[in-house]
C-alpha cells in the first residue's frame, strides 16, 4: 500500500496566536518581535502585504508602524507553546499517527484513509476542526512523500483558490505544480544551495525531480539526492513514531541590558540552569557534562570584547538542580572578568543518558547512592510539581528571579491560556 502523508502547518503562527485573543485586530497588521524586542520574527498576512520583511530590526520600521498602525507584540513563548499543544492534541484525535515536526507543523499518516473519505475531504475536515476547536487557521498539503507534502502545503498557502487544502497524490498534478515552484522553495534547498543548482540549469522543483540522482549525489550530497527522489514520489524519509533522544539541552538568553556585576551573572546562569534541569527531568534524562558560557555583544565593536566558555564532567550523571547549579557557579566564577559589558550567558547539558545508563560513584558506600538519589528525585519532583502550578514559586537560592538580566518585553501579551490571573475581565 502506497504511503500518504499530510503536512498541517499553522498560518503565521505567532501572529495568529496574538490575534486569536484580540478580535479587534482581525484585519490589523501584526508583527511579533524576537527576544529583547529586537527583530521581526512573525508577521500577519496584512503585515506581509505592507512589505514588512522577516528579520528586519524593529527600529528600522518605526515609521511604517506609525503610518499603518501596525500592532507590535513581544514573543510570548508560554502562549505559543500552549496553543501548539492544543493543535497537536487535536491532530492526534484525527489521525492514527502524528509526527510533530515543529511548534506549528506536524505530519499525519493518511495511508489507506481514502478507502473511507477522499484525501481532499479529509484535509478540509482537519482544517475546519483545528479552526473550530483551537481557533487557528491552518493549511494542509497531502502527497505520497514528505517533501511533496511540504510542496503541497506551499501551494495551499500561496494559492487562495485551493481553499487551504491541496491533494498532490496525482502524478500529473505533482509535475504541473513542480514546474511552477522555484527550486529554492523545495524543503531543504534554500537560497545558497539553489544558486549552485541554478548554475547547472536546475531552476524549478521539476528540474530537480528530473535530475539524475547519481549526479546530484556526486555534486552535492546524499541528502539532496533523497530530496530529488522524494520529489519523484519515492518515500525516503522514515516515519518518526517517537522523537529522537536529545543529545544536548541548551538554555541561554541575551540580556535586556548589558550587565557587569558577577552577582547579576550568577542570578542569570542559575536561572538558566534551573530551566535546563527542568527540561532534563521532563525527558527523564540525566546529564553527564555541563558547559557554561558568557560573552559581550560582538556587534558593538566600540566596546571591549570578551567571550569564554568552560565545561566539566560530572562525577555521576544527575538531574538534580542543586548539584548542577553548584557546578555552574564554579565554572562561571572561573570565567568572569571584571570590566566587561556582558550581553549573553547560557548553559548546556550534554552526555545525556536515561535511567538505565546511570552508574554509581565507585567511592560511595554500598546503598548510599541509591538513598541519596531517591531523596534528590523526590525533592526535584515536588519542586517541579509546585512550579507547574505556579511558575517560580520555588527557586534555587542563587536564582533571585529575573533582575538585571531579564529580557526586554515591552509589548508582551497576557498568558491567556495558562494563568487565571491574566484572563481578561468581563463585566
Structure notes:
A five-stranded mixed beta sheet has the order 5-6-1-7-8. The chain has a four-stranded antiparallel beta sheet with strand order 9-12-10-11, covered by helices on one side. A three-stranded mixed beta sheet has the order 3-2-4. It has a domain at 249-389: 2-Layer Sandwich (Dna Ligase, domain 1), CATH 3.30.1490.100. It is globular and about 65 Å long. With 427 residues, the protein is of the alpha+beta class. It is built from 14 helices and twelve strands. The longest helix has 22 residues, at 368-389. A hairpin with a 6-residue loop joins strand 2 (30-33) and strand 3 (40-43).
Helix and strand arrangement:
Blueprint: E1 5-10, H1 13-20, E2 30-33, E3 40-43, H2 45-49, H3 62-68, E4 71-74, H4 77-92, E5 98-102, E6 105-109, H5 119-133, E7 138-143, H6 146-158, E8 165-167, H7 171-178, H8 190-199, H9 205-210, H10 213-219, H11 222-231, E9 249-259, H12 262-282, E10 287-296, E11 307-318, H13 321-335, E12 342-350, H14 368-389
Helix pairs in contact: 10-11, 12-13
- Please describe the biggest sheet, giving its number of strands, its sense, and whether it closes into a barrel: 5 strands, mixed
Order of helices and strands: EHEEHHEHEEHEHEHHHHHEHEEHEH
Overall strand count: 12
- Supply the CATH architecture of one domain: 2-Layer Sandwich
The chain-level structural class is alpha+beta
> In terms of per-residue confidence, which ranges show pLDDT below 50 for 5 or more consecutive residues?
none
Strand content: 15-25%
Shape summary: globular
Distance between the termini: 57 Å
Please tell me the overall pLDDT. Answer: 88
CATH class placement of one domain: Alpha Beta
Q: Please, how many helices?
A: 14
* CATH homologous superfamily classification of one domain: DNA polymerase, Y-family, little finger domain
Which fold name corresponds to the CATH topology of one domain? Answer: Dna Ligase, domain 1
- The portion of residues assigned to helices is 25-40%
Radius of gyration: 25 Å
Side-by-side strand order of the widest sheet: 5-6-1-7-8
Amino acid at each position: 500500500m502506497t504511503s500518504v502523508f499530510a503536512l498541517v502547518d499553522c498560518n503565521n503562527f505567532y501572529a495568529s496566536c496574538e490575534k486569536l485573543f484580540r478580535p479587534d485586530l482581525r484585519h490589523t497588521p501584526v508583527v511579533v518581535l524576537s527576544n529583547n524586542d529586537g527583530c521581526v520574527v512573525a508577521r500577519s498576512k496584512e503585515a506581509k502585504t505592507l512589505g514588512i520583511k522577516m528579520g528586519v530590526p524593529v527600529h528600522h520600521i518605526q515609521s511604517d508602524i506609525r503610518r499603518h498602525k501596525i500592532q507590535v507584540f513581544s514573543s510570548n513563548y508560554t502562549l505559543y507553546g500552549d496553543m501548539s499543544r492544543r493543535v497537536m492534541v487535536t491532530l492526534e484525535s484525527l489521525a492514527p499517527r502524528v509526527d510533530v515536526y515543529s511548534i506549528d507543523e506536524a505530519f499525519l499518516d493518511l495511508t489507506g484513509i481514502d478507502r473511507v473519505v477522499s484525501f481532499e475531504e479529509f484535509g478540509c475536515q482537519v482544517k475546519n476542526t483545528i479552526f473550530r476547536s483551537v481557533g487557528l487557521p491552518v493549511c494542509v498539503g497531502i502527497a505520497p512523500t514528505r517533501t511533496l507534502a511540504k510542496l503541497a502545503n506551499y501551494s495551499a498557502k500561496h494559492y487562495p483558490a485551493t481553499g487551504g487544502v491541496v491533494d498532490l497524490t496525482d502524478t500529473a498534478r505533482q509535475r504541473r505544480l513542480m514546474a511552477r515552484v522555484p527550486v529554492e522553495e523545495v524543503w531543504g534547498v534554500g537560497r545558497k544551495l539553489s544558486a549552485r543548482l541554478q548554475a547547472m540549469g536546475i531552476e524549478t522543483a521539476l528540474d530537480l525531480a528530473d535530475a539524475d540522482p547519481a549526479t546530484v549525489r556526486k555534486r552535492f550530497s546524499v541528502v539532496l539526492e533523497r530530496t530529488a527522489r522524494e520529489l519523484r514520489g519515492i518515500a525516503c524519509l522514515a516515519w518518526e513514531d517517537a522523537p529522537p533522544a536529545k543529545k544536548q539541552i541548551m538554555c541561554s538568553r541575551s540580556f535586556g541590558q548589558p550587565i557587569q556585576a558577577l552577582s547579576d551573572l550568577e542570578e542569570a546562569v542559575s536561572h538558566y540552569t534551573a530551566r535546563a534541569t527542568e527540561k532534563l527531568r521532563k525527558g527523564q534524562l540525566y546529564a553527564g557534562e555541563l558547559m557554561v558560557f558568557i560573552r559581550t555583544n560582538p556587534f558593538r565593536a566600540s566596546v571591549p570584547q570578551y567571550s569564554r566558555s568552560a565545561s566539566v564532567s560530572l562525577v555521576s550523571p544527575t538531574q538534580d538542580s542543586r548539584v548542577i547549579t553548584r557546578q555552574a557557579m564554579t565554572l562561571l566564577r572561573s570565567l568572569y572578568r571584571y570590566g566587561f559589558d556582558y550581553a549573553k550567558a547560557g548553559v548546556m547539558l550534554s552526555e545525556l543518558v536515561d535511567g538505565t545508563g546511570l552508574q554509581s560513584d565507585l567511592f560511595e558506600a554500598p546503598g548510599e547512592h541509591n538513598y541519596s538519589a531517591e531523596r534528590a528525585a523526590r525533592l526535584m519532583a515536588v519542586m517541579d510539581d509546585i512550579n507547574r502550578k505556579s511558575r517560580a514559586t520555588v527557586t534555587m537560592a542563587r536564582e533571585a528571579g529575573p533582575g538585571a538580566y531579564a529580557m526586554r518585553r515591552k509589548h508582551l501579551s497576557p498568558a491567556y491560556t495558562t494563568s487565571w490571573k491574566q484572563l481578561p475581565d468581563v463585566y
